[in-house]
Specification:
single chain, 186 residues, alpha/beta, two-stranded parallel ribbon, 10 strands, 29% helix
Length: 186
């Protein structure tokens, strides 16, 4: 999907912030900042894949985000700069709703993340969403929703709402860390 098509679709939505998390780079974020209409906050973030799963990393430190690769180990909590939040993305995609995933694996990830994607537009598995909700509740994680859109028609199938208006990336990170987000879907 082109950034122009993405922005045209956003104009028909009632939103005040958007995150575009590509694997391992900020190029589309930087282009989107230059093109976005006034009044829509563009939140910097990167998706990374690791042997533990996929993660969305949001940070006010753009140099830190630029240092991330598309495939790498998840940076440990103590190795990340302040103003950074990490979300476990589509945690059980393709994993039969999380069945057979042991508690040790879940505990190791929960120790390093601030939130979990409980709804994902590309993985509408009710069992996986239910399992993610339970993990969020049991571990005090922020609950998020993401469209994971690769085509315009996939935008806004799932989204995240925050208790307070998001005007900057710092606001979004604070909402995740403060557990002040709600996952929504159509």
């Amino acid at each position: 999907m082109s950034l122009t098509a993405f922005l045209e679709t956003l104009q028909h939505q009632v939103i005040n912030a958007v995150c575009l998390t590509n694997h391992g780079n900020l190029k589309d974020y930087e282009d989107l900042v230059a093109m976005a209409p006034h009044g829509i906050a563009i939140i910097p973030g990167v998706e990374l894949s690791s042997t533990s799963g996929d993660f969305l990393v949001f940070s006010v430190d753009l140099d830190f985000l630029r240092s991330l690769n598309a495939v790498q180990l998840l940076p440990k909590r103590g190795d990340r700069p302040s103003g950074t939040a990490v979300v476990w993305a589509h945690p059980f995609a393709g994993n039969r709703g999380g069945r057979g995933v042991d508690q040790g694996y879940i505990s190791s990830i929960v120790a390093e993340v601030d939130g979990i994607e409980v709804y994902n537009g590309n993985w509408p598995d009710e069992e996986a969403s239910g399992h993610a909700f339970r993990i969020a509740e049991e571990n005090g994680l922020a609950q998020l929703g993401g469209s994971d859109a690769h085509r315009v028609k996939d935008l806004m199938r799932c989204w995240t709402e925050a208790d307070e208006k998001i005007c900057t990336g710092a606001d979004f990170v604070a909402a995740i860390i403060g557990r002040k987000t709600t996952a929504k879907r159509k």
